[in-house]
Structure formats: C-alpha cells, structure tokens
Amino acid sequence: MATVTTTATTSGSRSAKSTPRKPLTVAKKRQYRAAYVLVLPFFVIFLAMIIVPLGYAGYLSFFRKQLVGGVSFAGFDNYARAVQDPAFLAGVGRMGLFLLVQVPVMLVLSLFFALALDSGMTRLAKFVRLGIFVPYAVPSVVATLMWGYLYGPDFGPFAQLANLVGLPPPPFLSPHVVLFSIANVVNWEFVGYNMIIIYAALRSIPSELYEAARVDGASEPRIAWSIKIPAVRPALILTIIFSVIGTFQLFNEPNLLRILAPNAINSSYTPNLYAYTLAFVNQDANYAAAIAFVLGIVIMALSYIVQLWNQRKESQS
Amino acid sequence: MSASTPAAQPTHQAAGTSSLTSDELDTSTGRSARTPLGTEPKQRKNMVLTVVMIACVAYFLLPLYWLVVASTKSNADLFSTFGLWFADFNLIENLKTVFTFQNGVFGRWALNSLIYSVTSAVGASLLATAAGYAFAKYQFPGGKALFSIILGAIMIPTTALAIPTYLLFARAQLTDTYWAIILPSLVSPFGVYLMRVYAADAVDYSLIEAARVDGVGEIRIFFQVAFRLLMPGAVTVLLFSLVATWNNYFLPLIMLNTPEKFPLPVGLAQWQSTASAGSGSQALFSTIITGSLVSILPLIIAFLFLQRFWQSGLSSGGVKA
Q1: Chain A partners of B156 at a C-beta cutoff of 8 Å?
Q2: Where is the signal peptide (chain A) (predicted)?
Q3: Could you give the ipTM of this predicted complex?
Q4: Hey, is the C-beta of B143 within 8 angstroms of any chain A C-beta?
Q5: How far is A23 from chain B (nearest CA, A)?
Q6: CA A179 to CA A175: how far, in whole Å?
Q7: Where are the alpha helices (DSSP H) in chain A?
Q8: Contact at 8 Å (CB) between B208 and B226?
Q9: pTM over the 0.90 mark
Q10: What is the pLDDT of residues A235-272, one digit of tens each?
Q11: I want to staple A218 with a disulfide (CB 3.0 to 4.6 A). Which of A157, A213, A290, B254 is the partner?
C-alpha cells in the first residue's frame, strides 16, 4: 500500500530525529528487546494463522489426489485446470459484473450521505447517521434472512402489495435478477460503514480550506466537488480496496439465498462458494486450494491496480 | 498524501475530543459543536435534502422494522396478514419457542457467540495494540520489513485462508473446538495498522522519555503509561473485532460440526435450511425471525452506547489510510 508507506517514512524520520544514531548502548538494546517482546505475541499468531495456511494452500495446490494411486505431484496442473474451468470463470465473471454494478452504487451513496451530513444542512443528522450505519451491526446471515423473506413470494410485503393490485410478485429471486438482489443486500449492509469512514475523513478537513470558497459564494455542491472530495481521496481509495476484497469473497449472501432460490444460484455461483463446494462436497482440497490461491491473486492484482490508478491521479493533480 | 499527514495530526485530535462533547449536545446544533475551530457560520438547513435523507434512512430501517413486526406474529399470521403491519401479539410465545426449541440450543448458541466474540476481540485488540505501539514508537531492526508484511496481509482474503486453515486444524485435531474459531480471529492486520497510526499521535515521545528517566522499564512504560492513552484506539479495534467475530459465518460453518458449539449465525442458517427443506417444518419461520431479532440486539445496543469510541477511533484510521 503506497499510501501507507508514506506515513511509515514520515513517522520514521520523525523518530530518527529525536533519537540520533549512536553505537548500540545498553538502553538501545533494552528498547529493541522491548519492541520484539511487544510485537512477538501478534507475530506468532500472525505466522500460525496467516502465513502457514497460505504456504500450506500453496503446497497443496501443487498436488492431486486420485482414487487410484493416491496423492501425486501435479505441478501447475491445478492452475491450468482453474483458468480453463468454466464454473470458476463464470463465477469470477459474475463477481466482475457485481463489482462494476454494486461497488459504484454503494460508494456513491456512501459519499453522498457523508457529504450531506458534513454539510450540516440535514436536520436530525445524528439520527440519520445512526440509521444508515446500524445495518453494519447486523450479521450478514440475519441481513440475508431478512431480505430473503422480504423478497419472498410467500409472505414478503412486496409480493403482498403486488398481489393487492393484481400484479404478479416481483421476481427478486429469479436467475436474472438475483445478482441484483444480492447487490441490494450487500449495499444495505455496507453503505453505512463506508459512509462513516468517509464522514470521519471529511470531519478532519480543516474548515479554513473551504471557508474562503464559501465566503466567495461557492455553492455547497461546488465545495464538495472541488475541495472536499479531493481531500478525502485516501479514505475513498481505502473503501474501494475493501470493497474489491469483499466482493470477490462473497459467500454468505448467495449461500443463504440458495436455500430460497436453488434454481437461480448454483454451487459455483461465486468463486468462494465454488471453493467451498470443492473442498467440502467434492473433497478435492488440492483443487480448492488452487482456486483459493488464484482468487487471492485476482484480488491482490485488482487492489494493486486501484493503487496504481490512485497514484497516477495523485501525480496529475 | 505525505504532506497531509503531519498536518492532520492536530485536527484529528481535535476531532476526537469534539466528538466526545457532541454526544452530550443536541443533534440540531451538531455541526457547530463538532467543528474543531467553531468559527463557522451557522448553516441553513435544507428541507429537500432532509426529506431525501429521511427517505434513505427509511430504506435502511425497513428490514429491521419488518423484523420487529414479524417477530410479534404467529407463524400462521406471517402468511395471512400484511407484512409491514402488526397482527395478534405473539412475541412472548415466539420467544418461548426460540429458547426451548431443540432443548434450548438457541441459548447455547448465544452463549457461544458471546464467548467467541469477547475472547477474540479482547485478544485481537491487545495483540494489535502492543504490536502497533511497538511499530510506532520503536525503531528496531526488521521492524519496517515486518510491518510491510503485515500490511500486505490486509489484502489477503480471509475466506480464501479459511479452507487451508481448516485442513491444518483437521491435522492438529483442532476442528470442532472453540479454538478453531478463536485462534484465527485473534489476528487483525488492519488492527495493527490502525493502532500504529493511532499510537504515533496518541503517545508522545516526551512521556516515554520522562518515564525512562524515572527508571521505568520499557514494558512497564507500555502497560502503565502508554496503554491508557491508547485506549480509544484499542476499543475501536475491540469493537470491530467483536462485530467481525459475532457476525462470522464462513469460518464456524466449515470448522464446527457439533450444533452445541455453533454461534448464532450458523445456528440460524441451519434452522433456515431445515425450515425451507421440509414441507412439514414450516412452523419454524416465526422462530427463526424472532431468533434473528434476539441475535442482533446485543451488537446494536453496543454500537449505540460505544459511539464515541468507534467514531473517534475510525477517524484516526480514515484520515491517514
């Protein structure tokens, strides 16, 4: 994360100034030891719960298990299989579409709400802020259950209303619409969270930055567009990256809506659902590991592209 | 970005303290009270914007409103009455069913959720605070490299890790135990990042130096001097780990087999698939709905009461991220 390394260097040079470089004194050694002691507990668990599983997944992905002959080395076969696997590719493509549809809607809404609250022009601001944020505290399982019932043709209020005026129930759970229904659930869950991140960044812009513009008669939307949005770009980038990571990991919502819409959502609907099915239904841990690995690479690559794009924008401005 | 970092330092602290006071103040004067400088002219309220915002809030509250209404209905009324309005009041009956169905396993799930989330959140927060403080306040060999590795791990999709973690745990015979949920939830790379940013501002070098002059050991400085100052950041990490673990579904789904060890989301999802699968078991819907309502109340209450912590803590992360 390029933005992060800049903070690292600034604070690094700050502390270098306060402690000039000297040969290792007893005090210095004591400080090193303290630093290691403080970092160690986290790092041990970090190694055991992230690095080791990651390495193990990499290792597994190079093997194959067959009914006849047992486990054998497979080289890059699992990866070759993954990039040609229609089920996997369809899932990745579906998440690409989801990313293009859901993430912009979510972030534009989050940004709009944050700006509206920050402008001070909204009454009941505290109620609005909490009302939009509160879904974040709801587990995605419960969120999906609720929306699933709301969407449902049996006792969902939308179907009831449609029935009242003599229309067929809206097809929220049909094969072509269900992706958008999932997008709606994800939006509902995370707009408030992203709003709070952006809002917090907006609150910390020194107001003299736009006070002058306001005195000059610039409108509130104009100030938002020209001053506030550029100032909170780091926070926006953070929300974009988190959204990319979140999108490609999508599992809970489709897995639960599958119960209601088994014909619209299959077992490889998202890459993560596919990896889960491979590992726990097909018992093919090796191929599942390769899928998880490819998925991780896709996510890292996309996050990296977002940062590159951000840096280019930054150097232009 | 690099230029904005030192400049953001004082304003972030001002924003943090101002949100402390704003909680005691009326919402309508929110803006002027929260402005760090307090020199801003009073903004005119815009009716159109307010109406739009209230309409949006209605969308966000609609499912929760529906959940409250639906949890007061009998299973038959769910199907026969309009979803967005009340029918015969059946909440007490529903609650009784929730807590007695399958020998009261729901209470067990709630307890499990509490154990998983509190243990993980306290642990994750302590580990992240200690590490973040060390990265912020000590320059030690390998520190920068370690920190970059941890930062890189923020982008590793946790669900992609869950399957290999499961396979490793299966070898160590740790699956279907409480550890299978708690251990992976203790690691919060983003928490370390947040605490590093937070500690850089919250703990002044002069304080550390003063303690050193007094002969206080480095570790004691952390626990007795720095920790108090790091509390708001630590509570933010705690709260977000609490939410992440309380709401986690994927990890417990793959790790646990015994229903008595399930947390609430896995349990509720299991009820849902039972209810949808069998034709005779439809009586479960009102139970699932009421159980869902019970399972979301603790976190909503925690968020409402701990507002000032997560809001000020997030602002420090948001500014510099």
Answers
A1: 50, 54, 296, 300
A2: none
A3: 0.85
A4: yes
A5: 13
A6: 8
A7: 2-18, 26-46, 52-60, 77-84, 86-118, 125-133, 140-151, 157-164, 178-203, 208-215, 220-223, 229-231, 233-248, 252-260, 271-280, 285-316
A8: yes
A9: no
A10: 899 899 889 888 988 999 999 999 888 889 999 999 99
A11: A213
